[in-house]
Design brief:
globular, five-stranded mixed β-sheet, single chain, alpha/beta, binds zinc ion
Length: 209
């Protein structure tokens, strides 16, 4: 029987990041170990959780963090919202991340964008549109617009550029987020980075250090 892993609170961000990268390599090669998904694993966590990282990813059905990082129950604290938006996303997104940092002492946050993101495609398509998208979709897509505008004029593919810029802006926002995240980043006890998941290859590429 494999040993149940319960993370200690002194696990470092670099150790957590290494674990995620190795898991993604297993997944992308088609050789996942699918760890910690049995009763002895999850029942051991009933009294408390010690996730090694917060993953903020898109709600897209193809971007399932536990699967693509090949981790188990209790390993990552996942916040998912279309377009993996942070700026303007309000208290639910920011508060969820802050909870994981302040209460669960998670040392690492990864903002995870992905190729072919529909929210960003919509923002590019409707950036100059005068006809609003239905319901709350319009407001959501507006939150991605700063990334589209800031990546305009860059060489290369406009969608890829906007996806990358959206991750960069998210990381920047979180690194400066007072009063919980920013002081920890400055003190070196919290690492916030960004990556992009490629839908075709299954590989997560880190774009920030
Ligand atoms: Zn998406």
């Amino acid at each position: 029987m494999a040993a149940v892993r319960v993370y200690s609170k002194d696990r470092t961000a670099d150790e957590a990041l290494r674990d995620l990268i190795r898991g993604n390599e297993r997944f992308a090669r088609g050789r996942p170990s699918s760890p910690r998904r049995r009763p002895e694993d999850f029942s051991a966590l009933a009294e408390g959780q010690y996730p090694e990282a917060v993953i903020l990813s898109c709600a897209d059905s193809r971007v399932a963090p536990e699967i693509l990082f090949d981790v188990g129950v209790g390993d990552i604290f996942v916040v998912r919202v279309a377009g993996n938006v942070i700026g303007g996303a309000g208290v639910t997104v920011k508060g969820s991340i802050e909870y994981a940092i302040a209460e669960l002492h998670v040392p690492l946050v990864v903002v995870l964008g992905h190729s072919g993101c529909g929210a960003i495609k919509s923002a590019i398509k409707h950036i100059d549109a005068r006809d609003p998208l239905p319901g709350a979709i319009d407001g959501l897509v507006k939150l991605v617009k700063p990334a589209v505008l800031k990546s305009r004029g860059m060489s290369g593919d406009p969608l890829e550029n906007a996806i990358r810029k959206n991750v960069e802006l998210g990381v920047e926002r979180l690194r400066g987020l007072e009063p919980i995240l920013a002081p920890r980043v400055k003190a070196g006890t919290l690492k916030i980075t960004g990556g992009i998941y490629d839908l075709k290859t299954g590989i997560v590429r880190l774009i920030l250090r």
